[in-house]
Amino acid sequence: MSDAPPLKIGPLEVELPVVLAPMAGVTNAPFRRLCRRFGAGLYVSEMISARALCEGNKKTDLLAGFAPDEQPRSLQLAGVDPVYVGEAVRRLVDQDRVDHLDLNFGCPVRKVTRHGGGGALPYKRRLFAAVVEAAVSAAGAVPVTVKMRVGVDDEHVTYLEAGRIAEDLGAAAVALHGRTVAQLYSGEADWSTIARLKETVHSIPVLGNGDIWEAADALAMMEQTGCDGVVIGRGCLGRPWLFGQLAAAFGGQPLPDAPTTAEVASIMTEHAELLVDWFGPYKGIREFRKHTAWYLKGYPVGGEIRGRLGRVESLDELAGLLDGLPAVALPPENTRVARGHTRGPQVVALPDGWLDDPYDDALASPEGDSAASGG
Q1: Any residues with CB less than 8 A from the CB of 94 and at least 6 apart, and which?
Q2: Does 261-334 match 7-256+345-369 at the fold level?
Q3: Which of 54, 107, 227, 236 is catalytic?
Q4: Active site includes 35?
Q5: What would the pLDDT profile of 40-77 be if each residue is shown by its tens digit?
Q6: Can you identify the CATH homologous superfamily of domain 7-256+345-369?
Q7: Given its phi and psi angles, is residue 140 left (phi above 0), alpha (psi -120 to 50 degrees) or beta?
Q8: Beta strand 151-153 with 144-149: parallel, antiparallel or unpaired?
Q9: Measuring CA to CA, which residue among 298, 218, 303 is closest to residue 260?
Q10: pLDDT along the chain (375 residues), means of 10
């Protein structure tokens, strides 16, 4: 049982110590709205390129958008150039577009790390500090947080020093995924690293991320590590109701049961309609396709209908397919079935010579501030 205090991030007070992890192609405004309906928390946008924002990229502006009733407006930025990052933050704050900013230092994707971005960047201590300082300085009263991984690999661990740097430079919180970039999503997250970060960083909240598949995992992580809140990533893919279960767990209330397929179908319809309203009929329904497998993960539903849902062309077709779902409950043994990426380990793609000297910043590539967002 739990009765967790609110999560305080600078001037923000979040009712529950729960944060939706930024996930490319997933945590757009429609998905965030759906998750908020189930429970309180801080719901962060997918990763947005600082350079793309500065250059007025139209796709990026849409991805960086918030529904009129969305509060707080939480956006994650990525970039390797302090100038671009500072300017992007300044524009967002001056235009009153955000209430919270998160900096991405954890992305393990090859197209990001090979230019020195994401999870590769904290290895370069001075560059990491310059990016954090630029964001914090430009943000004013808007809190800036840092999300990172344990390190590039087991031989190049960075999280404790990065946590201290972020704290000293005025970050409002730090979040740690208990895996290295090399692990990608393989194996198990090492929650002991979250505990060590909590012992190292004293004046700001420490948030834990990794392998929270059900509400009990969130309570266990906080108990075992002493962290101040949890970050939910792959565990909520196709399961926005997890936030309702988390709200019950943190409030010391009985957990709602997992929905039946009939209830899942209703949530799927709502999600698809929100995507169509936001992106338009063509793009919206195609954005929804990848979610169909996640929603039905663990349910005894036949392969034919799964395949047809993955190729759905319209809301009308979706309605017809969902009408054909068998009425079944989620088997209890499938509650913790992993969803989303399970790839790894990997050889980390890095700029040539990146690991030779942690204080040589000249190797960071401008391509790391690509005008493309959502990686």
Answers
A1: none
A2: no
A3: 107
A4: no
A5: 999 999 999 999 999 998 999 999 999 999 999 999 99
A6: Aldolase class I (3.20.20.70)
A7: left
A8: unpaired
A9: 298
A10: 84 97 96 97 97 92 94 97 97 97 97 95 97 98 98 98 98 98 97 98 97 97 98 97 97 94 98 98 98 96 94 98 93 89 94 92 61 40
The whole-angstrom separation of Cα 356 and Cα 364 is 13
Rounded to 5 degrees, what angle do the CA atoms 335, 247, 66 make? 100
Q: Which conformational region is residue 353 in: left (phi greater than 0), alpha (psi within -120 to 50 degrees), or beta?
A: left
CATH number, domain 261-334: 1.10.1200.80
| Residue 204, token pair as written in the block | 């700001």
Is residue 113 within 8 A of residue 348, CB to CB? The reply is yes
Give residue 2's pLDDT.
62
Domain residue limits, the chain? 7-256+345-369, 261-334
pLDDT of residue 362: 64
CA distance 216 to 303: 31
The DSSP-derived string for 323-345 is HTS---PPPGGGTT---S-----
Phi and psi based region of residue 334 (left: phi greater than 0; alpha: psi -120 to 50; beta: remaining)? alpha
Which ranges of the chain would DSSP assign to H, the alpha helix?
29-38, 50-54, 58-63, 82-94, 110-113, 125-139, 159-168, 191-200, 215-225, 242-250, 261-279, 281-295, 303-309, 315-323
